[in-house]
């Protein structure tokens, strides 16, 4: 997965529909998430589309699998994952993920319907990270 910095450099260069295409491409680049992991426990609440996030790896290098049934939403969750992927669980638990995503200005780039679940995606990622860091 590309770094959030690399993604932003490309995103910043693009406009309108090209940004949508980039998000869709990012969603396609996510590691495949087995259907068996798409459970109520991994479901992100409050999203207009179905979104699942599942942590793997160890506390020193947390890795997330994620998926969505909507292409743009899957791209948005890919941005969230890019911000935290392969970092220590304690760092992810304390991280300002919304701040890391601020340069993308998602609220002004996408409809409120598409971005309403972003805080819930971030909350679930941080919740998983805090649980793993404490173990």
Automatic annotation (TrEMBL):
Q: Which residues form a coiled coil?
A: none
Query: Sorted alphabetically, which InterPro entries does this protein's record hold?
Result: Fe-S_metab-assoc_dom
One Pfam family linked to the record: SufE
Superkingdom of source: Bacteria
The family line of this record is: Belongs to the SufE family.
Q: What is this protein called?
A: Fe-S metabolism protein SufE
Q: Which organism is it from?
A: Aurantiacibacter gangjinensis
């Amino acid at each position: 997965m590309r770094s959030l910095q690399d993604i932003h450099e490309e995103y910043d260069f693009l406009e309108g529909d090209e940004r949508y295409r980039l998000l869709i491409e990012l969603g396609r680049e996510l590691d495949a998430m087995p259907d068996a992991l798409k459970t109520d426990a991994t479901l992100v609440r409050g999203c207009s589309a179905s979104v699942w996030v599942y942590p793997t790896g160890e506390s020193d290098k947390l890795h997330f699998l994620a998926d969505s049934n909507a292409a743009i939403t899957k791209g948005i969750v890919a941005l969230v994952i890019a911000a935290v992927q392969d970092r220590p669980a304690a760092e992810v638990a304390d991280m300002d993920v919304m701040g890391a995503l601020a340069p993308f200005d998602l609220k002004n780039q996408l409809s409120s319907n598409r971005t309403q679940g972003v805080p819930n995606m971030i909350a679930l990622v941080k919740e998983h990270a805090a649980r793993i860091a404490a173990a």
